[in-house]
Design a protein that fits this description.
Distance between the termini: 12 Å
Strand content: 15-25%
Order of helices and strands: HEEHHHHEEEEHHHHHEHEH
Structural class: alpha/beta
Helix content: 40-55%
Length: about 300
Amino acid sequence: MRPQLENLLSRTVGLMYTLPLANNSIPQIAVSTQNDECFHVLSSDQDLAKVIYNGIVEYSFDNLDSYLDRLSDAQIIALKTKLKYNAAAEEDIRLKYGFYGEVLLFLFLQYYHNANTVISRGWFYQPTANAEVTGYDTYQMVERNGAVELWFGEVKFYQSYTEAVKKILKKVGTSLSDDYLEANILDISQHVKKVNPRSQIDRIINAWLDNPSIIIKDELIRYNMTLVYPMVVIFDDKDQTYDDIIKEVVEYINREFPAIVYNVAIPTKLFFMLLPVKSAKTIKTQVLSWIDTKEALI
């Protein structure tokens, strides 16, 4: 991450606390296997919009070195070839694009969890299709104790937390399955030369290309991999105090989704990352305004 963007992010968003709280006033989310993380906006929604706007190039390219002296060009290329964005579309359509949340998911994992990119999702976007990229919302990794954790997450950035949570948890049975994980790795195989070799995903793909009869989940087990599934929910705070809105979200999830069913052969961890904001729509509208005016990047 560029130092300027890292500095902006550190001044804009901070970790308030993890769940459960020590006094148990707010419990852990029932379906999570790790402590849930609750973030807050340190400065303003406008700064968060600035993080998203500047993070588009970071999210879109595996390596920005060749663009560091021409970031404006990188931004234009990203918007045209790396993510779904149609400048001619009506604003209400552009507000529904998924990149706002995906950029934040990418940056949060890089900054707060020291994750590294396995492969940029930008490689999967096809301008001729003009459709959102399917699959996990990020492909990242964390090396821990000599093993690789695959941080393949999901994000929803809505005004309503109920809508965001429903969309994520109703998909978990699909997202956390051997078939879905294999399908994503097969998608990655189309761009194997772009894969971070430290992830070991390239070894699994090359083994499969040499012998398509092998079972990919068995290779994941052989390489001692773990699937980590962070679920990022960004939502309006409804003018409530921070603790009140977090408690409301947790109570809703635990009431409506007390358990979920998933089945992945490799060890799996999942947890929520919650971020209340003043207005999701205002943040996205500001990002669109800067895109339209080609605001200079930091």
